[in-house]
Amino acid sequence: MPRALPAAALAELYSQSTGGLWLVLLTVTHADLPATLRLVNDRASVVSGGDTYSPFPFTMQLPPDVEDMPRALLTIDAVDLSIITAIRSITSPASVTVEIIRQSAPDTILASWILEMRGASYDAQTVTIELHPPPVLEESYPGTEFTPLLFPGVFDR
């Protein structure tokens, strides 16, 4: 399903050349992390939605704009061992919110995805992280079982 974009964003997309810059914002949360990580693929900090995103070198292979399960790849430059240390310290999938903004309108989110870290590999130059959607199909439905112990009125005759 196509996304509806603001007229100014469409003008930037369709123009032959533009000074507009599109940025990717990452918000990484997990109970094992001391604080929420907010990163932007730019050289300067960006304030979006009242939150400050720190500049950090990374590239993003965005998930396709389709209705089935999207998958994204995040490649981070391994310029700092703290990223590898943080990844090693996480014991379960971390939540990653990916948002696309225009530098000229940082509070307008053009596209967003909520994904989970599911795998990471690294070498001396880069860290590559696989991002997958949360496994909503693995959750039980309904949320509880109807048993005589939990719902005795249902089983009375």
Question: Overview of this structure, please?
Answer:
The chain has 157 residues and is mainly beta. The protein has one domain: Pnp Oxidase, Chain A (Roll). The protein is 13% helix and 40% strand. It has three helices and nine strands, in the order αββββββαβββα. A nine-stranded mixed sheet has the order 3-4-2-1-7-8-9-6-5, covered by helices on one side. It is globular and about 75 Å long. The model has no long low-confidence stretch (mean pLDDT 82).
Defining traits:
157 residues, mainly beta, Pnp Oxidase, Chain A, 3 helices, 13% helix
Topology:
Elements: H1 7-14, E1 22-29, E2 37-40, E3 46-48, E4 51-55, E5 58-61, E6 72-77, H2 81-89, E7 95-102, E8 105-122, E9 126-132, H3 152-155
Parallel strand pairs: 2-4
Antiparallel strand pairs: 1-2, 1-7, 3-4, 5-6, 6-9, 7-8, 8-9
